[in-house]
Write a structure and sequence with these properties.
Keywords: Cell outer membrane, Membrane, Signal. By secondary structure, the protein is of the alpha+beta class. 19% of the residues lie in helices and 47% in strands.
C-alpha cells in the first residue's frame, strides 16, 4: 500500500514523494533472511526462521525534462526493516536503502 503525491513546480521538473508499507510473507523472509540448521552448521551463524513482516518506507522520484523527447529520472527509497528481519544473523542494519538514476 502506498500514498504518493504528484508535484510539478514548473514545466520541466516533476517530483513524486511517497510513503507506504511493504508486506513480505514468511516464505519470502525465510528464503532471503532465514538460516536452516544445515546452513547454520556450515556457516557458523545461528539457525533462524523469520515470520511474515510489514515494513514502512519512504521514497522520492524526480524527472527533469530537457526537451520534448529528452528527460532524466532519479529516485531513492529507504525502508525500515521489521523486527523479524532485523533479528536475522545475516542482517547488520535496521534499514535498507536504494536508488536509481
Amino acid at each position: 500500500m502506498q500514498y504518493s503525491y504528484f508535484w510539478q513546480p514548473n514545466d520541466k521538473l516533476t517530483l513524486t514523494p511517497a510513503v507506504g508499507i511493504a508486506y513480505a510473507d514468511r516464505r519470502f523472509n525465510r528464503y532471503y533472511y532465514g538460516i536452516r540448521p544445515a546452513e547454520s552448521e556450515r556457516s557458523g551463524l545461528a539457525a533462524y526462521r523469520p515470520k511474515a513482516s510489514v515494513q514502512p518506507y519512504a521514497e522520492i522520484a524526480a524527472e527533469y525534462r530537457f526537451a520534448r523527447h529528452w528527460s532524466a529520472f532519479a529516485g531513492g527509497r529507504v525502508e525500515q526493516l521489521a523486527k523479524t528481519v532485523k533479528d536475522s544473523p545475516m542482517v547488520e542494519k535496521s534499514y535498507h536503502s536504494g536508488g536509481v538514476v
